[in-house]
Amino acid sequence: MKLYNKFLVVTTLLLSMMVTPSCSDDDLDVPLYGGREDKEFYQNLDEINQSLTACYYFLKQAWNEVSLELMFINDIGSDDCDKSCGGATDVIDLHHLETFNINATNSKVSNLWAMSYKSIYQINILLDKAAEFRANNTLSEKDEKLLTRYENEAKWLRGFWYYNLAYFWGDVPLFLHAEKPADIYKSRTPVAKVWEQVIADFTAATNLPKRSEYAPEDMGRATSGAAYAMLGRTYWFVRDFDNSKKVLDEFFTGTQKGEYDLDPDYATQWLNHNSNVKESIFEIQYKSNGKNWNMSTGWNGVWFNPACDSGYGFHLPTQQLLDEFDPEDPRITWTFIKLGDQFKDNSHKISNTVQSLRYFDRKHFIPLSETINSSTPIYPQDVEMTVYIIRYADVLLMYAESCLETGDITNAKINLNKVRKRARNSSALDPKREIQVIIPNTTPNSLPDVVSGDVNEVREAIWHERRCEFGCEGLRRMDLVQQQRYGKVMTDYYNNNNIQKETPDKGRYYSKEKELFPIPQEDIDLSKGVLIQNPGY
Q1: What is the DSSP letter of 520?
Q2: Residue 379: per-residue pLDDT
Q3: Per DSSP, what are the bridge partners of residue 282?
Q4: Is the distance from CB of 174 to CB of 184 less than 8 angstroms?
Q5: pLDDT < 50 regions, the chain
Q6: Which of 6, 58, 209, 249 is the most buried (most CB within 10 A)?
């Protein structure tokens, strides 16, 4: 996302103006030296745009990237990935995610909650100030159109954050304006009302320009296509298949027709970082600035690389995930790294005595030869990487499921088979590897089209395809919750793990209540009884 780098200095200034949940009035009553007070800002459209850049910035913040937290929570908290690394006590809060032994001080849960509300606060400031700017100025038609676009981009971002809050916590406080410090604690809004707001925000954002209508320097902003896609995802997640089909009909046959498509080769998405490929609907682009990690807008790949490549070795795909794939599926190449693989320009093979039976995450692996960091040249952080929030294949499969659940099995199979066809026509060899231990034997007859006329079989085929298509991309937990089988899958995983011996306690403490996260204890304490904890914590 190019606009991350465009206003980095102004973004830092704007973030210093923010109110966070743990602030008091005294904390805020501090003079701002060397900058401008909040009330002096937002005096023109350029300053409103700079504030919008600060809103985007919350999608990527050094060691607290939301994409990182979402991948950990959604994959490690599922049957797709293990925490691994140096045993259960190494970043124990991640271990608690996979065992469901989560408490109200879990740092991963608390980080996501805090990031969400910090971002929402900044977004609400922008929306409030934009409304004031409109009321106090006579705008030309051009300026009115631009201001409305900025507001709708902000609403898309707010919809994204409230989507995750509703999914992870259920009832949550709903803020639509920048509250004063004394008013930042309010009771939880019923989750149905939160979903209504998510739908309203994404609906407003459908009035944004299409991706093809943005100037090159604005590539990476929220678009009308991203709004339709996330609106469809929202209806799909709450299992309102009539409305998800309606929204996605518009995506495929209406204003977005021709804007997106599957890349012919699945490999393209994992070999071309920051390239805004045809399939990408909304992505977070991380780009090294070649300086230091504190100033970085780069990807923190240290979490995903094995120890032999100066990494920590977290987020490791499970044997069960590999077993889900047809052995001839070329997507195996782009999801898994096997011990013994060797990447070009590296002097060693992938090896790790601590994790000797493990696979590693290919989609987020950065070979040492591609790392750039002036202070620690071989450290896999501060590098280029694209993390997809939503891509075309995801929309195709949500659409397939929506068609199936509304009685249109024919179109369900047509869209499902588009994803399977692309997979069987994709590359099975990774050009970055000199040695590739697992090479799928893909033929023109691999991954044949699904032809069954049985609704249950087609549903299972769609669910299977989602798992293979999006392995290690931070969607699995969400998929299982949406499919209403999260508990069964995780308890089965725990029961079968006596044989698999990967993570013996994964799923051990699952209960229906644990499908929602605890509200951070610090926020409950500061609210003085206003915030009520979720059951089970």
Answers
A1: P
A2: 53
A3: 390
A4: no
A5: 1-36, 62, 374, 377-378
A6: 58
List, in order of start, the domains of the chain with CATH numbers: 1-205+484-537 (1.25.40.390), 260-474 (1.25.40.390)
Verdict on whether the full-model pTM lies above 0.85: yes
Residue-level pLDDT at 11: 40
- Reduced to 3 states, what is the DSSP secondary structure of residue 285? strand
Which residues, 6 or more positions from 43, have their beta carbon under 8 angstroms from its beta carbon?
133
- In the block, tokens 């308890």 appear at 491
In this structure, what token pair is assigned to residue 194? 């939160």
Residue 370 contacts residue 432 (beta carbons within 8 Å): no
State the Cα–Cα distance between residues 261 and 493, nearest whole angstrom.
35
Structure confidence by residue, pLDDT tens digits, 158-188: 999 999 999 999 999 999 999 887 778 899 9
Instruction: For residue range 115-134, list pLDDT tens digits in order.
Output: 999 999 999 999 999 999 99
Residues 6+ apart with CB under 8 A from 150: 45, 48, 49, 52, 126, 130
Distance of CA 468 to CAs 87, 386, 417, 423, 496, Å? 27, 19, 13, 10, 21
In this structure, how many other beta carbons lie within 10 angstroms of the beta carbon of residue 233?
23
The CA distance from 238 to 328, in Å, is 34
What is the per-residue pLDDT for 372? 55
